[in-house]
């Protein structure tokens, strides 16, 4: 051998060097030789032994598993993941398998708008808008009080119907709602307004 220095990741070479050092300490005059052994290929009997070893490695048994490096474990997981991904990609699917339910279809009212506007719209529609009520429910604010008019609960209905800070905007909004739906604000709930396609 050109060198007996272990390379990176050579776990067993490092262990062998430790054993050699221990032997030299125990018996100072000992002569130790490191010899290279050729691979199994082309040597009678060794190829069969190699075949049996590979066969045994692929079968579960009572033997103790040898430690594996983190890199080896990650590689095994990655290889398994890609095998499963190729199998999934090659498999067929029925037409109805990935059909989106009507309840999850994007709302036509905001289909062509900006992400920011669509985000605000869906927050209002689901009751997760940053009105006083939702942060209070999420324990971010101590109360649900309106920060414009000090009303005890700042809800969607409060902002769209009665908050004095938005009187002009409310007037325009409800005039258009009445024109489209023939309903005035006293007979409309905001959740119904946001669900009505005519109010988009």
Helix and strand arrangement:
Elements (H helix, E strand, L loop, with lengths): L10 H16 L19 H12 L12 H21 L24 H12 L6 H5 L18 H7 L4 H15 L8 H6 L5
Helix pairs in contact: 6-7
Essential attributes:
200 residues
Q: What report would you give on this structure?
A:
This protein has a domain at 113-199. With 200 residues, the protein is mainly α. Helix 6 (156-162) packs across helix 7 (167-181). The protein is 47% helix and 0% strand. The protein has 8 helices and no strands. The longest helix is centred in the middle third of the chain and has 21 residues, at 70-90.
Shape: elongated
Number of helices: 8
What amount of the residues lies in strands? under 5%
Give the N-terminus to C-terminus distance in angstroms: 81 Å
Number of strands: 0
Give the uncertain stretches in residue-range form. Answer: none
Query: What structural class do you assign from the helix and strand content?
Result: mainly alpha
The amount of helix comes to 40-55%
Order of helices and strands: HHHHHHHH
Radius of gyration: 37 Å
Describe the sheet with the most strands.
Answer: none
The mean pLDDT is 79
